Every structure is written in structure tokens, then in C-alpha cells.
């Protein structure tokens, strides 16, 4: 009957979603295998992005798409030289330009997922800045796709709360100060406020080793 059909469709949809999650997770691990400094980074950014999407009162289906898009936001790093990804010293101007290419490479890869164009947008635009000074396209404000604006904040939070080769993680107070300082310049003010709320509620880890 119709109830059985609905239940069968729900079950099939859950199976497809689980398969999608596993495929994306496998892709993410392949990226991080090349970059010793970002192990677990994409997973944490996905978790934080989904939390932010919830704070912004997005629908459950949209929150799930934000999560997937965040998981593969750095997929373009698979096309960047491994030695460059793992360089411990300061990047030269030429090396920095090469590193920036991961956004364009990632967008090209994610474009193959035609059922979820948000993945391509997230891969390309997560380093855009709200004031228009980001890359690769210099988009400004709401020109930047919503998913990319969310991931940009989650990405920055994870960078600040993680030990890096060139510095220790920032304290909770320092992270909050940086979020406030970059509100409206680097970050969408509404999403920045949501991140501050989450940090102050102590619902995300303050730092990772």
C-alpha cells in the first residue's frame, strides 16, 4: 500500500544519503593524506558548518548539504604539489598563488556533482572575503554563495583552534577577539555572530592538537 511505499522510499533515501556520506568521507581522506597538517580538518569544518547552518535556522535538508559541501571544500588540494602543501616555512608570492589554485581546481572537480551545485560553489568561494578582498573572484558580501560564507567562518575557526607548525592554537578569548575583529571584513556579520554564540556556549572544542 501507499504507507509501505513511503517507508520503502524513506529507507532507500537514507541508504543513498549514507552512501553519499561515505563516498565524500573517502574523498576527504584522500585529500588529507597529502597534507599532514590538516588531518581531520575537513571533518571538523563540516561539523562546525552544520552547527552554524542550524543556528541560521536552515532546513534539515539544507544543513545536510552544507555538511557535504564543507567536507569537500578543500578537495582542490589534491591537485597541489605535496611538497608545497607540507612546506613548514613562509610561502613565497609564487607559492601562495599556486596554493590559491586549490579553489579553482576544487570547483572543477566538484562540478561533476551536478545534483549538488553548492559543492562547486563552496570549493571555489570559501576563501572569498565579505569585503571583496578574497580569492579567486573577489566576490563581495552576498555575492559570495551562502554555503561558502558559512564554510569560511568554520574554516577560520578550525585554523585558529588548531596547533599549526608555525604557531600554537589561539585561546578562546583570542579566537573571539579575532572573530569580532573580522566581522564584516572577512566574515559575513550574521554568520560571525552565530560562530561567536557557539564558541561562548562552549559547544565546540576550544582547540585541537
Can you summarize this structure?
By secondary structure, the chain is mainly α. It has helices at residues 2-32, 41-55, 60-71, 82-85, 93-100, 102-110, 117-125, 146-160, 172-181, 189-200. It has ten helices and no strands.
Description:
It is a single chain. This protein has 209 residues and is an all-alpha fold. Helices cover 60% and strands 0% of the residues. The longest helix is centred in the N-terminal third of the chain and has 31 residues. It starts with a helix and ends in a 9-residue tail after the last helix. The mean pLDDT is 88.
What multimeric state do the chains show?
Answer: single chain
Outline the biggest β-sheet: none
Helix content: 55-70%
- Give the class from helix and strand content and strand pairing: mainly alpha
Task: Count the E strands.
Answer: 0
Amino acid at each position: 500500500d501507499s504507507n509501505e511505499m513511503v517507508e520503502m522510499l524513506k529507507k532507500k533515501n537514507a541508504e543513498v544519503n549514507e552512501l553519499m556520506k561515505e563516498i565524500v568521507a573517502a574523498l576527504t581522506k584522500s585529500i588529507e593524506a597529502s597534507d599532514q597538517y590538516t588531518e581531520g580538518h575537513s571533518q571538523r569544518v563540516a561539523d562546525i558548518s552544520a552547527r552554524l547552518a542550524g543556528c541560521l535556522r536552515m532546513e534539515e535538508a539544507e544543513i545536510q548539504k552544507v555538511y557535504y559541501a564543507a567536507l569537500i571544500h578543500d578537495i582542490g588540494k589534491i591537485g597541489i604539489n605535496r611538497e608545497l602543501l607540507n612546506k613548514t616555512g613562509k610561502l613565497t608570492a609564487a607559492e601562495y598563488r599556486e596554493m590559491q589554485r586549490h579553489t579553482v581546481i576544487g570547483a572543477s572537480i566538484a562540478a561533476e556533482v551536478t545534483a549538488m551545485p553548492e559543492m562547486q560553489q563552496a570549493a571555489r568561494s570559501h576563501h572569498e572575503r565579505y569585503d571583496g578582498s578574497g580569492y579567486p573572484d573577489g566576490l563581495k558580501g552576498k555575492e559570495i554563495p551562502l554555503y561558502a560564507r558559512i564554510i569560511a567562518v568554520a574554516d577560520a575557526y578550525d585554523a585558529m583552534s588548531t596547533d599549526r607548525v608555525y604557531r600554537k592554537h589561539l585561546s578562546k578569548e583570542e579566537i573571539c577577539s579575532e572573530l569580532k575583529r573580522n566581522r564584516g571584513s572577512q566574515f559575513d556579520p550574521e554568520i560571525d555572530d552565530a560562530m561567536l554564540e557557539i564558541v561562548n556556549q562552549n559547544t565546540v572544542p576550544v582547540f585541537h592538537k
